[in-house]
Amino acid sequence: MKKDTFTFHNGVKIPSIGFGTWQIPNEEAYDSVTMALKNGYTHIDTALAYKNEENVGKAIREFDTPREDIFITSKLPAEIKGYDETLEAFNETITNLGVDYLDLYLIHAPWPWSEIGKDCTEGNIQSWKAMEKLYNDGKIKAIGVSNFEIKNLQPILDECDIVPMANQIPFYIGKDQEELLSFCKDHDIVVEAYSPLATGQVLDMPELKEMAEKYDVTVAQLAIRYCLEKDTLPLPKSTHESRIIENKQLDFEISDEDVKILQQIRDVRD
């Protein structure tokens, strides 16, 4: 790929494609992460809420690669808000993974999943301050958020010391979130694109199949490459080795003209 890494505003580098583990059960996570590592992935994304940190960590520890060569992300559960609660959850994650530090730790969402849209501003600020402490103590190399809109990010910028280094959001062909992307770029926040295949729903779109044939790639490769063309960091996931391999084979570029065409596609899930 043309771009091997993104760089956070604190200088820490993150591999430009990650292996996502959302919806991979704990019993399958060991094999899936091992396959990803075997096939060149050095960036693994998990979360306490995924309930698979134990086997994600086991796969990383047992693979013949130094810890410092693997970038590990995990997340504070969306329903946990508060300073002490965040420190406790972080310790649980570190214990689950069996590691001494995280490369990136994110607030999973600005509100509990059972109360989407709830105003948790003060709780998010307190959680962020706890993450700043963990960062300053050297237990995390970078800190960020996930699913945060501009209205959720602004209080962090106003009330806290450290600007988030990353914002992990749903991003795929049909869901560009241009205003949020622009805001993050203005504040030097790296945008990570989760669900780059719209949980598989872009794969059957005729116009994408036609364009993928033009580049002699799969629709999945086209969709993941599109995220990179939009300067976002994709996090594809699979439990099938052939697709794990395919999702990382992105040594092509989408022309500016075709990127503009893809930008016009409406959200397949609307």
From TrEMBL:
The active site is at Y50 (proton donor). Keywords: NADP, Oxidoreductase. Gene3D superfamilies: NADP-dependent oxidoreductase domain. GO terms for molecular function: oxidoreductase activity, acting on the CH-OH group of donors, NAD or NADP as acceptor. Transmembrane segments: none annotated. The record marks K75 as: Lowers pKa of active site Tyr. The keyword Magnesium does not apply. Residues 17-266 form the NADP-dependent oxidoreductase domain. SUPFAM superfamilies: NAD(P)-linked oxidoreductase. PROSITE patterns: ALDOKETO_REDUCTASE_2, ALDOKETO_REDUCTASE_3. InterPro entries: AKR (IPR020471), Aldo/ket_reductase_CS (IPR018170), NAD(P)_OxRdtase_dom_sf (IPR036812), NADP_OxRdtase_dom (IPR023210). Substrate binds at H108. Belongs to the aldo/keto reductase family. This is Aldo/keto reductase. It comes from Alkalibacterium subtropicum.
